[in-house]
Amino acid sequence: MSGGRQGREVTGNPFNFQMSAESLLAHYHSWLLSASVSEALTPCADPGTTAQVRQRILEEPDLHDLLQNDAFHFIFCGLQGKADLLLALQHLARAFQTLEQAALNLYITPWRTELHTIKTYSGHYVHALEAALPQDAIFQALARLNYVPEADGTSLKIRVLPEPRALAVAALGFLAAHVECNILANLVSCSGSTLRNGADLIQERRSWRGEDACMERLQKLVVSEPRIVPAAKSSMTVDGVTATPNGEVLYISQFCDDCHEPWDRHVNRGCKMVTEHHGCHDQVPRVDFVMHDCVFSEQSLQQCCAPCCTFHSFSCSDVRVCRDNGHRVTQMTSSEKTQAVMEEQRRKHQLHSCLQPGQLPHYRCSQCRQLHYIKCKGVLRCRDQGHNATMIMLERNQRLWLQRSLMDLTLLYRDAPASRSGLE
């Protein structure tokens, strides 16, 4: 068992995280090249490669973010409402292996058109994916491979085949998620506690480095509980307390299974369903959220900081500052991206006719949603009408506002840009 640092997360250098992710990709790609001589390529079981992945993500769970695999989100979806966490994790591990296999199939034999369609009633889909994940999570995972569900719900199809390197990155991400399931399964089976809440498990895993430190914390979760006995089939859970019909307490979870927040932060122990929740049910972002400049400069919409009411790109350095301040930063779901882009489209500024090609805007009117050149008389008319027409002082900001007005916002629906993540 790996030792790990005995303490809370120590913020690292984002550059080092990216280098770790790059190193993992290089290792996985080397295995892929050596194994691809066979057209029957199976999920990676190479001891050296899997050991590298396990070591890196044990010490730096944030590497899952750089691998773009939404591992903890999918794992939480698979654990939600499950009494037997160990069995659920085994199902999830198999599901991630199936997803890795799908990526490898496309990588090694892209010409096999039958692989471009997945039937939702097929054996692999039903017994491997549906057994572990809800439908929305399955669709989200397969979207990494460009699979899109058909309107009748009976199949998913690829319209545009992903590039080989993108498939390699996706396959590595699914391998890392599979390894993460094995790590969590080991924690559950060896912790010696009666832990039955997936949110508790994931919260501690993400907050502590190494198996020993995490396991120590998990064991302490039940020390102060009034009574812990094996769960009865007739038990029910209300506000984190699992009890029998006669009121006998079986288990008290430390974190809400809906919003992941500690119960003691809830008002009257009721779930406040905060908007930063990134669970299996998509939450619609509030209209007062804004997009950070990084979203437009990197053409990437991936993360949400609820305390700041701000959306961020995949690799924005400001996100780490948010986490240092204790803010909850989550990966955005497809539904959240859609709502955020719709709201931004409504706010989007247009170029006034005064702006000629090559010119930068010097004024913006928040009421008219227009950008103006410095000598435009339209700015005076806006101010006469009581509009808030403000000057854009810095050239950097002028270029950014111009870029925002010209940008095709549909680009924000895609995964993290390859040029920014360094992985594609």
Question: How would you characterize the overall build of this protein?
Answer:
With 424 residues, the chain is α+β, with helices and mostly antiparallel strands. It contains 16 helices and 14 strands. It has a four-stranded mixed beta sheet. The protein has a four-stranded mixed beta sheet with strand order 11-13-12-14, with helices on both faces. It has a three-stranded antiparallel beta sheet with strand order 1-3-2, with no helix packed on it. A hairpin with a 5-residue loop joins β5 (241-243) and β6. α5 packs across α6 (123-130) and α9 packs across α10. The relative contact order is 0.11. The model is unreliable at 1-15, 222-252, 272-285 and 416-424 (pLDDT under 50).
Short description:
The protein is α+β, with helices and mostly antiparallel strands. It is built from 16 helices and 14 strands.
Secondary-structure map:
Layout (H helix, E strand, L loop, with lengths): L13 H22 L11 H13 L3 H4 L4 H9 L5 H24 L8 E3 L3 H8 L4 H8 L4 E3 L5 E4 L5 H27 L7 H10 L3 H10 L15 E3 L2 E3 L5 E4 L37 E2 L1 H6 L4 E3 L4 E3 L5 H7 L4 E3 L2 H14 L2 E2 L11 E3 L4 E3 L5 H7 L4 E3 L3 H12 L11 H4 L3
Parallel strand pairs: 7-9, 11-13
Antiparallel strand pairs: 1-3, 2-3, 4-5, 5-6, 8-9, 8-10, 12-13, 12-14
Helix pairs in contact: 1-2, 2-8, 5-6, 5-8, 8-10, 9-10
